[in-house]
Amino acid sequence: MRPLTVLSGAALALFLTAQGAGAATPTSPDDPANVAPPGDSKTVTPPENFANATPPDAKAAFAEQGRAAGLTEEQITTLQNSANLYVFTMGGRQVALNKVVIEGKADVLIALPDEDAPRELSPETGLAASGCAGGKAAYKHFCAWRSPNFTGTSIDMYSCDRYPISLVGNGSWDNNQTKGTKARMYDKNGKLIYTTPPARSRDSSGDWTPVYSVRNC
Predict the structure, then answer these.
(1) Which residues does UniProt assign to the signal peptide (predicted)?
(2) For FRET with 54, which of 42, 47, 80, 93 sits at 20 to 30 Å CA-CA?
(3) Which DSSP category does 118 fall into?
(4) pLDDT-based confidence at 43, cuts 50/70/90?
């Protein structure tokens, strides 16, 4: 299987089939949203020197952020590896040890695997200003979380686009876009498999595994 391709600034991510939120919305072959998928694998290992890689000096500075916050070297490595993955799959750039920004489109705040929320590691992290702060999507935002109950790594989508990601297992989402806006979720073949209820709608537990991309609008 080939890895997910690096997308331009137009790309970020969200994957999830919402359990208990109704049947999947059927699609037709001529559905304009039914475009080619970004790839056919969710198991992605970024190469050492991919085009958008964070420079070594920046990674060193980010590691110092983690040490100043009392993180272990293992925790620092975990966050950096996660940031590498999001930059590789979504384009964008790393601005803190636990934050990736897709300019004008989306932000990813990365939590450690055993923690419910990302940490405030630097001013650039900006937890309070996040569109997914407190486990709720701000108005005009669509948020996806790696874990159930709106916890863990958060992906804040605030610009209308189609976003890829490699999340697996149970997660959650909150659609607080303008009234009536629906998000659409697609499988690895680009087939529409679920349409959310109109905003505002949310789901506290659903399986991301079959979802390879989401159009938030």
Answers:
(1) 1-23
(2) 42
(3) -
(4) low
Q: In what order do the strands lie in the sheet with 17-18?
A: 17-18, 201-207, 170-176, 141-147, 151-157, 106-109, 99-102, 93-96
Own/partner pairs for 127-133, CB < 8 Å, 24+ apart? 130/154, 130/156, 131/107, 131/156, 131/158, 132/156, 132/174
Which pLDDT value is given to residue 51? 60
The winner for highest mean pLDDT among 17-31, 154-168, 186-200 is 186-200
Burial 13-51, CB ≥16 within 10 A → b, else e: bbbbbbeebeebeebeeeeeebeebbbeebeeebeeeee
The domain spans of the chain are 17-215
Q: How does residue 18 score in pLDDT terms, banded at 50, 70 and 90?
A: very low
Mapping DSSP to helix (H, G, I), strand (E, B) and coil, where does residue 75 land?
helix
